[in-house]
């Protein structure tokens, strides 16, 4: 069972805040059985807790019994039903998302990253150690960057990506144009 | 129309093609949804448009409702995301404590009360007017907890936050509501709370 300091703490704010939180838990029925009996005891024996409990309970009852729900217009339900008449229920995502495809994409990218990493590390001159006392044991300038960017594979890779990028841009602009035309008409 | 069916049964039958049964779900939750959307939008027309959008979205995605949670919890998640998206698009006026307009609202409510004679003030009016003075998040939280029958865990799911955070936020929201009632409706609160 938690031990509570009955006297107000030097930091009265946090004491009050803790007390209120525990009392709200008690009022909302979220306290554990132990906490519940402990709070009941505090309310019965401590005036400060009793007063605060009565205040919070009053606020709780005030909100619970007086909070009003707003009502939309009388036509609301009919409007919704008319609107959904134009639509079909979309198939559940699980029916068209193939997990094998997700796994395929994951494996593809993982292999790509791994391949690039292995290829990059393979290009390093491991014997050319740094003489400048740098914490990095290899001379960065000894990495021949030209090997990365001046070979056929990289060129093809960049070209394919550029084409894919242009295709995506075309699709996006096409969609926007269609939406704009629909709006206009 | 009261079919006597529970939410899951209605959803099952709507998915099988009985579209008209969806009206029952709309009738059941329209007030809850509309109240929440009204916390975001200043005008009833906007709130109604968002609420309608919510029900259309829910209908179109009904097949994705797996039944892991209550239908209402799932629906309020859609309400939350739709409201946020709608506000981003339309840049609607949001009730905020930092917003000067709130104080204008407060003044209007206060002067309105004065005009309608103080004795006409009721607990009912006081609570609902004080709610309007809270910021959107606090008002939404109190509505979800007290009127939409959502537990702290469920509210956490709807808002995408931890239940403990919900608890603390709810505690602060209620404290602010009490503060608002004491500030703007001092006469009534004196009799009721102290």
Task: Give an overview in words.
The complex is a heterodimer of chains A (about 180) and B (about 190). By secondary structure, chain A is an all-alpha fold. Helices cover about 70% and strands about 0% of the residues of chain A. Chain A is built from 8 helices and no strands. Chain A is flat. Residues about 1-10 of chain A have low confidence and may be disordered. Chain B is mainly alpha-helical and about 190 residues long. Chain B contains 10 helices and no strands. In chain B, α8 (about 150-160) crosses α9. The longest helix of chain B has 22 residues, at about 165-185. The N and C termini of chain B lie far apart (about 45 Å). Classes of the chains: A mainly alpha (about 180), B mainly alpha (about 190). At the A-B interface, α1, α3 and α4 of A face α2, α3, α6, α7 and α9 of B.
In short:
The complex is a heterodimer of chains A (185) and B (194). Chain A is mainly α and 185 residues long.
Core attributes:
heterodimer; A: about 180 residues; mainly alpha; 8 helices; disordered N terminus; B: mainly alpha
Report the count of strand segments of chain A. Answer: 0
Major β-sheet profile of chain B: none
Order of helices and strands of chain B: HHHHHHHHHH
| Oligomeric grouping of the chains | heterodimer
Round the Cα radius of gyration of chain A to an integer and report it: 34 Å
User: Would you report the number of β strands of chain B?
Assistant: 0
- Uncertain residue segments of chain A: 1-12
Q: What is the overall number of helices of chain A? A: 8
Which spans of chain B have pLDDT < 50 for at least 5 consecutive residues? 92-120
What sort of overall outline of chain B do the alpha carbons produce when their principal axes are compared?
elongated
Number of helices of chain B: 10
Topology diagram in text:
The complex is a heterodimer of chains A (185) and B (194).
Chain A (H helix, E strand, L loop, with lengths): L11 H17 L4 H13 L1 H20 L9 H9 L8 H4 L2 H25 L21 H5 L2 H33 L1
Helix pairs in contact in A: 1-3, 2-3
Chain B lengths: L6 H9 L6 H19 L3 H17 L10 H20 L9 H16 L7 H10 L3 H11 L5 H8 L3 H22 L1 H7 L2
């Amino acid at each position: 069972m938690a031990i509570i300091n009955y006297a107000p703490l030097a930091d009265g704010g946090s004491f009050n805040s803790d007390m209120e939180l525990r009392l709200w838990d008690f009022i909302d029925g979220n306290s554990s059985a132990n906490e519940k009996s402990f709070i009941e005891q505090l309310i019965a024996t401590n005036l400060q807790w009793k007063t605060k409990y009565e205040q919070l309970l009053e606020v709780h009852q005030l909100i619970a019994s007086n909070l009003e729900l707003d009502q939309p217009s009388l036509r609301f339900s009919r409007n919704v039903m008319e609107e959904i008449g134009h639509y079909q229920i979309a198939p559940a995502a699980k029916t068209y998302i193939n997990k094998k495809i997700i796994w395929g994409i994951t494996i593809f990218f993982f292999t790509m990253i791994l391949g690039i990493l292995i290829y990059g590390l393979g290009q390093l001159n491991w014997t050319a150690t740094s003489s400048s006392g740098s914490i990095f044991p290899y001379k960065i300038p000894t990495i021949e960057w030209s090997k990365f960017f001046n070979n056929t594979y990289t060129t093809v890779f960049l070209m394919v990506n550029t084409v894919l990028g242009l295709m995506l841009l075309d699709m996006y602009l096409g969609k926007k144009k269609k939406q704009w035309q629909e709006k206009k008409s | 129309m009261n079919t006597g069916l529970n939410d899951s049964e209605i959803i099952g039958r709507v998915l099988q093609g009985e579209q008209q049964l969806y009206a029952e779900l709309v009738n059941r939750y329209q007030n809850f949804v509309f109240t929440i959307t009204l916390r975001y939008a200043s005008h009833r027309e906007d709130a109604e448009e968002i609420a309608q959008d919510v029900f259309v979205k829910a209908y179109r995605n009904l097949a994705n409702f797996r039944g892991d949670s209550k239908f209402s919890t799932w629906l309020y998640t859609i309400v939350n995301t739709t409201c946020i998206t709608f506000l981003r698009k339309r840049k609607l006026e949001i009730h905020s404590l930092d917003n000067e307009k709130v104080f204008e609202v407060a003044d209007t409510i206060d002067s309105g009360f004065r005009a309608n004679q103080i004795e006409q003030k009721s607990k009912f009016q006081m609570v609902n007017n004080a709610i309007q003075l809270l910021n959107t998040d606090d008002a939404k939280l109190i509505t979800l907890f007290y009127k939409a029958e959502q537990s702290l865990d469920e509210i956490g799911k709807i808002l995408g936050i931890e239940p403990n955070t919900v608890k603390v936020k709810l505690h602060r929201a209620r404290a602010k509501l009490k503060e608002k009632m004491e500030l703007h409706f001092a006469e009534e609160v004196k009799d009721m709370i102290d």
